[in-house]
Amino acid sequence: MKCRKCGGAAALELRRHNAAFCSPHFLEFFRKQVAEAVHRHHMFTRDEQIMVAVSGGKDSLALWDVLIEDGYQTAGLYLDLGIFDYSKESKAKCQAFAASRGQTLHIERVAEAVGAPIPVVQQATRRPTCSACGLSKRYLMNRAALQHGYPVVATGHNLDDEAATLFGSVMHWQTDALPRQSPALASTHPKLVRRVKPLYRLSELETAAFAFLRGIDYIVEECPFAKGATSIAHKQVLDRLEEASPGSKHNFLFGFLEKARPAFEKIEHVELLECTSCGQVTTGAICAFCKLADLVKRRTTG
Ligand code: AMP
Ligand code: FES
Ligand code: ZN
Ligand code: ZN
Questions:
Q1: Which residue of 14, 39, 49, 218 is 20 to 30 Å from 151, comparing CA positions?
Q2: CB count in 10 Å sphere of residue 80
């Protein structure tokens, strides 16, 4: 196999692009895909300060690396979920990365905001761990960005993540989730910051290869509350399709974004209010996060 760009020995084959690259040209390809995502969806400009939400995993650290190298103004945000050694180790990876690049890392403790670490929250809610965790992450990312004055939060969601989420929403016809599935969500309220996913054009395998080639030290272990069985099953189904027909995930996600999403976008009309308890944006009187914090308080003290 030869590199598509220079004809030298290829280090990596990308079947869905029907191409192979040597290491330097793969890094170039990867950075170009990020630049294309940023440009196409007007994610941010060079004048803006970008808050990069980093979990300590390969995707978000690879994203931070690309943005720093490209000269963007960035800072990291790590949300300490309080999940035993997993959180301690992932926080250490983020801190080491930030220090090695001379970047600021903001740290928010979920236990401080919700009243208990995620494992205790999970017991209090008696719902799948990831639902309370996901809610807390989205809320705290927005709150931290507002507090520190960042107009945009970037996450490390990749093509595999996005295709699997879309597949799950379509399987259950969660039509209210479809307009919100986008590489870039605009700010629709002064208290909502923009949310962007600059890695949506890159697969999980590609971000792993990038992180490896760049020598990024990331946490390999998954969260011990492994994602729900259905979301893993969805990823496996898509992996099988991809294996049989390279490009399936790409076509599924990109076809949705180009052809189907606009139809769902038109029918979404929600009025945004400010939570009477915390002041953050909500569709009801009290936001879901404050309800969660209240439930945790009652169940852990009662
Ligand atoms: P996940 O939902 O775990 O697949 O993570 C998706 C993205 O959310 C990651 O790429 C990060 O950008 C962000 N993220 C996940 N966990 C954290 C965390 N503990 N702190 C900050 N950002 C996170
Ligand atoms: Fe939220 Fe695992 S990262 S439950
Ligand atoms: Zn090459
Ligand atoms: Zn609230």
A1: 218
A2: 19
At residue 231, the pLDDT reads 80
Query: Closest by alpha carbon to 48, among 73, 31, 20?
Result: 73
Tokens, residue 19: 């191409």
Task: Please report the DSSP string for 52-113 in residue order.
Answer: EE--SSHHHHHHHHHHHHTT-EEEEEEEE---HHHHHHHHHHHHHHHHHTT--EEEEEHHHH
pTM: 0.96
C-beta separation of 105 from 98 below 8 A: yes
Mutate which of 219, 223, 231 to test ligand 2's pocket (most atoms within 8 Å of Cβ)? Answer: 223
Ligand 3 centroid distance, CA of 43 (Å): 29
pLDDT confidence of residue 268:
58
* Nearest partner of 61 among 80, 71, 74, 42, judged by Cα: 74
pLDDT given at position 264: 85
- Establish how many alpha carbons lie within 13 A of residue 283's alpha carbon, considering only the half-sphere containing its beta carbon: 5
C-alpha distances in Å from residue 283, one per residue of 5, 195, 288: 51, 18, 9
Q: Can you tell me the distance from the alpha carbon of 302 to that of 297, in angstroms, rounded to the nearest whole number? A: 8
Q: Tell me which residue of 25, 66, 77 sits closest to 44, measured CA to CA.
A: 66
CA of 121 to the centre of ligand 3 (A): 49
Mean pLDDT split into 10-residue runs, the chain, 302 residues: 96 94 98 98 98 98 98 98 96 98 97 93 82 93 98 98 95 90 94 98 97 97 80 91 96 96 76 94 94 92 72
Structure tokens given for 287: 């936001």
User: Coil, strand, or helix at residue 282?
Assistant: strand
